[in-house]
Amino acid sequence: MALTLPVSADPVLLRETELIWRIDAPWFGGFSGIEVQDHGTTLRLITDKGRMIDARMQREDGKLKAITNISWRKLRYINGIGVKGPFTDSEGLAITPDGRIFVTFENKHRLTEVDPATGVMTQQPTHPDFGHFTKNSGLEALAVHPDGRLFALPERSGKRAAPFNLYTFDGNAWQITGQLARRGPFLPVAADFDANGMLYLLERAATPLGFRSRIRRFDPDQSSQGDITLLTTGPARFDNLEGISVWQDATGQTRLTLISDDNFLAIQRTQIVEYRVQE
Q1: What is the reported pTM?
Q2: To 10 degrees, the CA torsion angle through 193, 278, 223, 165?
């Protein structure tokens, strides 16, 4: 199944904020999933070490100035034991309209629902394809549609010319509901929906000169495929951007918040970048 967009002028991304976030703590870093809520005032994150972070976003005239009121918890099994070893690598984060939290994991590829108060996970149904994903190339991109369906894309498609399968979870079972063309060296790392059901896909390419980022937008419910490229950066313009949240401010303006994964390395940074969508 292919995906198309209606004919219209392409939207433009207007950069609003670039912020380097630093905290001297062993839990800090490795951010792989992000959700901005409450018109840009609250923040939920996951790291690739199985941690969930909650915080407030301090703004002045709409622009992000600081991250405050930070708390974190370890993701845990039903018996209270925290994730560890190959079960730790949490990558995708999505929060449904009714507040349910879902997280995908790599290496041991799976989808879980997370209790926000305790961090306890409940494993969800799987798809036969998930068992064939390679070790570090699972469900990186997870997003929830305004109607509550979950959509996920793997980081790799199997071959350079092969499209990415689009997996959809309705709460009971996964289905492959479409494919997205693989264009150039970029690979999916995160996704999120806007209020109109348009899916924004953040992609990454690693080069000898640094990371590149790309954002594409498409409608997963259209009968034939098409996508719009909203942003393509050169090497090292930003750090390793790996999370995207699409949200509306108090005026109804659509905004994007991106966060980088520093891989817990001193040579990298945790960077937050925000854009405003101009249609």
Answers
A1: 0.94
A2: -50
